[in-house]
Amino acid sequence: MRLLTVFWVIPLIVLLPTVGAAQGLFSGNEFNPSISLILDGQFSSYSNDPDDYAMSGFLLDDEAGLTSEGFSLDESELVVSGNADDWFYGYADVVFKDEEGETEVELEEAYFETLSLPGGFTLKGGKFLSAVGYNNRFHPHSWDFADEPLVYRAMFGKALTDKGAQLRWVAPLDLFVELGAEAMKGDSFPAAGGANDGVGAGTAFVKLGGDLNQSNSWKTGFSWYRYDVDGRDSPIEDGRMVFDGDGNNIYIGEFVWKWAPGGNLRQRNFKFQTEYFYRDESGRTEAETPTLTENGRYDLDQRGFYAQAVYQFRPRWRLGVRYDWLSADNTLAGITVPNPLDDDGRDPRRYTLMTDYSRSEFSRLRLQFARDESSSDADNQLILQYVLSIGAHGAHQF
User: Fold this and answer.
1) Buried-state track 52-70, b at ≥16 Cβ within 10 A, e below 16
2) Which CA distances in Å does 331 have to 150, 245, 299, 348, 364?
3) 28 pLDDT exceeds 60?
């Protein structure tokens, strides 16, 4: 973990004194920051009780699970961003969520990013969405479906965000080549406790991409997330399980292909997206119920992927399909308390269909149906969603 810290600190010391003219990101200025409000609401219906949601072979974070049934507000966001000067860009994203009739306010991201480091380097610091994988960089309002892929729900809770620093380098080539690493506190699921003096997690990643021709483009990549667990608390039926373990790993492969005839996205376009996750985690656990406390060792060997395709068949209208699959080979020694990590031979999977209509680039209405077979009782899930963007809002990444 210390090597990752050195990886980004040394280039920072060398490069900051040589910063030249501003380049890269630009959003407003020091007197006129960009401000936007994202409204995200849903009506949800399930054939099972969403409070009983579970995933065979996986223990979920407290934040993971299903949106409450009926009408709800999902993650509405207030975003403020702008250039502080010719060296630094700042971004803050405050999320408002309605939980059982109470409004929760959460700071999802708050970071600075350099604008003009030479040599293709960019430094980011603060709290931010990690660059691992593909879908993790995007906020929920820009997803192609109303909810996250199952593998993200199982392994990141929803998305991986943490406090720390990130260093990226883009090679001066015709082919897009990006290398990067992050040093993180390690407070966010699946890490916990901010071990190692507050540097309990780190990442490394490589991204490649390019254009095949005027109509086709692609992007692929590989990411590694290494983390320590110090007192991670997960709910089980009638109790909790607390985990401790060092040197755990998640490996991610990603691939995205986009097509638009002649490069014109407005009329028709197609997007295929897939990611594969593998997690290797081990350590000690304590299971507690009102009548029993047990201690033992655990070894988790888990994997999963999703594949999705979205086709805009005419202006403003899109159709999408998604398939999710996960599998777990877990070993628990000394734990007899029933919990989702027990191997019942069932692999969670889900089948999703969606269609949406965008009146403009600032509004979207979506209808989505999913059959979720994450546990023994299959769940039919219907979601009606609206997403509205008010104010300045920049273009999203590839």
Assistant:
1) ebbbbbbbbbeebbbbbee
2) 22, 14, 5, 18, 44
3) no
DSSP helix/strand/coil, 17: helix
Residues shown for the chain: 398
Residue type, 250: I
DSSP string, 153-190: HHHHTTS-EEEEEEEEEE-SSSSEEEEEEEEE---STT
Residue with tokens 């780190």, as numbered in its chain:
202
Buried b or exposed e, range 133-159, using 16+ CB within 10 angstroms: bbbbbebbbeebbbbbbbbbbbbbbbb
Better-scored residue on pLDDT, 2 or 186: 186
Q: Which residues pair with 240 in a beta bridge?
A: 235, 288
Tokens representing residue 39 in the block: 């409204």
> E strands, the chain, where?
34-46, 70-73, 76-83, 88-99, 102-114, 121-129, 161-170, 176-184, 201-211, 216-236, 239-259, 269-288, 293-314, 317-333, 349-360, 363-373, 379-391
Considering only 2-6, 122-126, 347-351, which range has the smallest mean pLDDT?
Answer: 2-6
Confidence band for 178, pLDDT divided at 50, 70 and 90: very high
123: which 2 tokens?
A: 């430094």
- H or E element at residue 4: helix 2-15
Query: By three-state DSSP, how is residue 225 classified?
Result: strand
User: Is 325:304 a contact under the CB 8 Å cutoff?
Assistant: yes
Residue 15 is predicted with a pLDDT of 43
CA atoms within 13 A on the CB side of 101: 0
What are φ and ψ of residue 85, in 5° steps?
Answer: -165, -160
User: Is 67 within 8 Å of 382 (Cβ atoms)?
Assistant: no
Query: How far apart, in whole angstroms, are the C-alpha atoms of residue 321 and residue 189?
Result: 28
Listing DSSP states for 327-373 in one string gives: EEEEEEES--S--TTS--S---EEEEEEEEEEEETTEEEEEEEEEEE
Per the CB < 8 A criterion, the answer to whether 75 and 40 are in contact is yes
| Residue range 81-90: mean pLDDT, rounded | 94
CA 32 to chain centre: 30
